[in-house]
């Protein structure tokens, strides 16, 4: 009876043909590439090569050689140059892993337990080395046809989804990979700026991960400890010329999916401004975020805001007052009104709501209600 390695080696061609069929049936990108006879032959050659070398190195208790990995890297580069998407590339690697395990199982006999256990222990480091080389080649190949703006957005997506390939992508873009990041989300309630032009312009000034998200969100990742976050946001505001709200959160690499979710929540609670002048964090907007998560409280605040609508311009007046730390002279100057007009408006707030806008209680309630109004009453 033949042993595991003999049977496995003898089925390389058959397994390679099956693998190619699975790829082309499952992945439209592979199917499109395989329509070219030369490309299909190259794909078949690679499937045979990787299986032959895997059986050989597992049998001999060795690792892939530099020559092996160079061949794998070249295959990854070729696939990218032919238009294979990153999503298809990742799916193909998952399929290859599943097929390899299936091939070992099909070749094994009951008496091959020791060889099977040896193989299963040996495959993970081999697979990691091959996948790393393949991905490195793939990312290098993308440079030939994928615009740099798209590659930067791809990198940002990797960071925001805690994708371990982000490190390779950072290297291919010559972009620093910080351990700590500030994730900033800019919410644009209305308007559709020219996205590609905006990102190109921003990247010429700030070489950092940037990305458009749907709906109406721009995301920037700034290495923590720097001073770029507000600068990027202000440049973005200048470029798009649309009202927006800004929220941010800090997090470590590998945990940025959660950080992104927090930053997005803050942006939903942040006031919409015609020109962004501040980056808001959870500590800046915790009353508004808490209120938005409690419908009875939010309804009560809406009632307070409805009373302020009787005006004149009471929401804008309170917003300016609280943004200026209740300095009435500065507030009047900012609003372009006489100080006595400001005093009249503050008395009007008291008459309508029963709250003194300069009292502790008044500040707590009115500032929260005003910010909820300016945020558009987004539900978190």
Automatic annotation (TrEMBL):
Pfam families for this protein: HTH_30 (PF13556), RsbRD_N (PF14361)
Ranges where the PucR C-terminal helix-turn-helix domain occurs: 314-363
Domain RsbT co-antagonist protein RsbRD N-terminal, first and last residues per copy: 16-136
Protein name (Swiss-Prot/TrEMBL): PucR C-terminal helix-turn-helix domain-containing protein
């Amino acid at each position: 009876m033949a042993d595991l390695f003999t049977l496995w080696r003898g089925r390389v061609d058959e397994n390679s043909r099956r693998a190619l069929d699975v790829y082309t049936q499952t992945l439209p990108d592979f199917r499109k590439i395989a329509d070219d006879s030369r490309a299909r032959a190259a794909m078949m050659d690679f499937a045979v090569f990787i299986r032959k070398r895997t059986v050989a190195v597992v049998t001999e208790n060795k690792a892939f050689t530099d020559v092996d990995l160079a061949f794998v890297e070249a295959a990854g580069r070729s696939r990218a140059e032919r238009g294979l998407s990153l999503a298809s590339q990742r799916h193909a690697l998952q399929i290859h892993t599943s097929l390899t395990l299936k091939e070992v199982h099909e070749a094994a006999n009951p008496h091959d337990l020791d060889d099977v256990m040896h193989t299963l222990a040996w495959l993970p480091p081999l697979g990691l080395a091959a996948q790393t080389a393949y991905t490195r080649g793939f990312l290098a190949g993308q440079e030939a046809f994928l615009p740099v703006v798209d590659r930067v957005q791809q990198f940002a997506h990797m960071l925001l989804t805690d994708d371990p390939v982000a490190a390779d992508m950072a290297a291919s873009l010559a972009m620093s990979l910080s351990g700590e990041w500030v994730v900033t989300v800019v919410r644009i309630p209305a308007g559709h700026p020219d996205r590609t032009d905006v990102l190109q312009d921003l990247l010429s000034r700030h070489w950092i991960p940037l990305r458009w998200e749907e709906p109406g969100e721009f995301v920037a990742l700034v290495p923590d400890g720097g001073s770029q976050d507000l600068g990027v946001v202000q440049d973005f505001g200048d470029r798009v010329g649309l009202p927006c709200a800004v929220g941010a959160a800090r997090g470590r690499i590998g945990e940025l999916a959660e950080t992104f979710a927090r930053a997005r929540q803050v942006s939903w609670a942040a006031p919409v401004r015609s020109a962004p002048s501040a980056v808001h964090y959870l500590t800046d907007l915790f009353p508004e975020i808490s209120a938005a998560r409690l419908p009875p409280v939010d309804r009560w605040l809406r009632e307070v805001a409805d009373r302020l609508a009787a005006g004149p311009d009471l929401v804008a007046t309170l917003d300016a007052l609280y943004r200026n730390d209740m300095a009435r002279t500065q507030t009047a100057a900012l609003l372009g009104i006489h100080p006595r007009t400001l005093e009249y408006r503050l008395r009007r707030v008291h008459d309508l709501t029963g709250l003194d806008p300069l009292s502790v209680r008044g500040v707590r309630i009115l500032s929260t209600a005003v910010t909820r109004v300016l945020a558009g009453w987004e539900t978190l």
